[in-house]
Amino acid sequence: MTDDQTLESEGAEPPRGYGVRISEMDPSDRPRERLAEHGPEYLSTPELLAIVLRTGARAQSALDLARALLAKHGGLAGLAETDLHALQTSHGVGKAKAAELKAALEIGRRLLLARGGERPRIGSPAEAAAYLGSTLRGLEQETLKVLLLDSRHRVLDVETIALGSLNVVATRMGDVFRAAVRRNCAAVILAHNHPSGDTEPSADDVNLTRRAKEAGDLLRIEVLDHLVIGRSTEGFASIRESGGVW
């Protein structure tokens, strides 16, 4: 399939504009050819994104689609914060493109951390939910993640701990803290999603939090919170704020 071939997609079709198919461009103007000749740093953000997308949508080239996505979500930072479900229901994207976009953005995030770039500092449950939400919203099964933090509560990494329903049998404390001990973390934040969208913590959620806090005290790794992430952009609950454990 070539770049000028288009795909059917969900959602309303945008009006036809003045875009030009990539196959109709002069070869020296096509993103892939420009990257091969000049290097990736020479390309604009829409051109790089178009290479990741590979194909466009009905009435849109890959480059037009890239520009539309960046405009809709507020640039790369907005795309990175957009959850998988929201991406795959956007016009011209679908499941495959959404997965490829999220994978490319996650590689960029991990590279930044690996190079010791400025790490985000988590100062509140809302900031933790904003950081983790895009990786948990839209998932079809419950997934438990742990956010690894240094002594200043700056992000070191995010680890996936368990898939499926959370309960005292399925989640072992050794799994929760293995990466935290290896990375010499000062603190962690647990987070998992409720595919139903209901952010009310269950009895199992609270029990898991209590066990994690006790284990963290023994390991001298502070458990700052356990978040339950819903499906909406801002939907989450903080077990710390709900009381009963801390």
Layout of strands and helices, then pairs:
Layout: H1 31-38, H2 45-53, H3 62-73, H4 75-81, H5 84-88, H6 94-114, H7 125-136, E1 143-149, E2 155-163, H8 173-182, E3 187-193, H9 203-219, E4 222-229, E5 236-238, H10 239-242
Parallel strand pairs: 3-4
Antiparallel strand pairs: 1-2, 1-3, 4-5
Helix pairs in contact: 2-3, 3-4, 8-9
Model description:
With 246 residues, this protein is α+β, with helices and mostly antiparallel strands. It is built from 10 helices and 5 strands. The protein has helices at residues 31-38, 45-53, 62-73, 75-81, 84-88, 94-114, 125-136, 173-182, 203-219, 239-242, and strands at residues 143-149, 155-163, 187-193, 222-229, 236-238. β1 and β2 form a beta hairpin. α2 (45-53) crosses α3 (62-73), α3 packs across α4 (75-81) and α8 packs across α9 (203-219). Mean pLDDT is 82; it is low at 1-18.
Note the run of SSEs as H and E: HHHHHHHEEHEHEEH
Fraction of residues in helix: 40-55%
**Number of strand segments:** 5
Low-confidence region ranges: 1-18
On the 0 to 100 scale, the average pLDDT is 82
- CA radius of gyration is 21 Å
- Quickly name the level 1 CATH class of the largest domain: Alpha Beta
- Assembly state (oligomeric): single chain
Our estimate of the beta-strand percent is 5-15%
CATH superfamily of the largest domain: Cytidine Deaminase, domain 2
Helix vs. strand class:
alpha+beta
Which sequence of strands runs across the widest sheet? 2-1-3-4-5
Largest sheet: 5 strands, mixed
Distance between the termini: 56 Å
What is the architecture of the largest domain at the second tier of CATH? Answer: 3-Layer(aba) Sandwich
- The fold-level CATH name of the largest domain is Cytidine Deaminase, domain 2
Put simply, the count of helices is 10
Identify the overall geometry.
elongated
For the record, the count of structural domains works out to: 2
